[in-house]
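Deliverable D5.2: sample structural annotation.
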Amino acid sequence: MADTIEPRKILVLFSSPRKKGNSAALANQIIKGSASEGANVEAVFLNGMNISPCQACYACQKKDSKGCAIDDDMQSIYPKLVEYDTWVIASPVYWFTMSAQAKLFMDRCFALLAYANNPFAGKRIAIAMSYGDTDPFNSGCVNALRAFQDSFNYVGANIIGMVYGSANEAGEITSNANLMQQAESLGKKLASR
């Protein structure tokens, strides 16, 4: 009997308040590509969740810690972050960087080390971003991309790819056929073994 290869488990974190916004459209195209290659995909919408800011209590960093001390909806996300081998983070640019929802999520990832021995090591990450200006530098998109790069590099995760583009009105980005194809291709790449 031949060994079967388990499909990739991909967790998609939507961090825009607009479920049909532009970063969501990019993430959905990534999902389309991943699903077409047989990946198991789960989506989490951060905006509707009760996620508090990190309180810098360091409870998660103490010996024999049981994890983050804040009892909120992030507790339901931590096991998924450990379990899933691939994450997609989708965010619009707000005031020259990632959305507040994405930043709350990123800050609370500080506690992940309490849940497993460096659960970041080897994680495969993709970033999907939209911004209002026509330029990723003027919009601040590069600030967010750099923050993701620096954070994930520091903890040993691997950014597999990034897709980003300019759009204002909700869903407008879908008219950029080239970018939509890039997002779908990134999804297929994330699903590959």
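Annotation notes: The chain has one domain: 9-51+58-191. The first strand starts at residue 9 and ends at 14.
The annotation will be released with the project's public dataset once the embargo ends.
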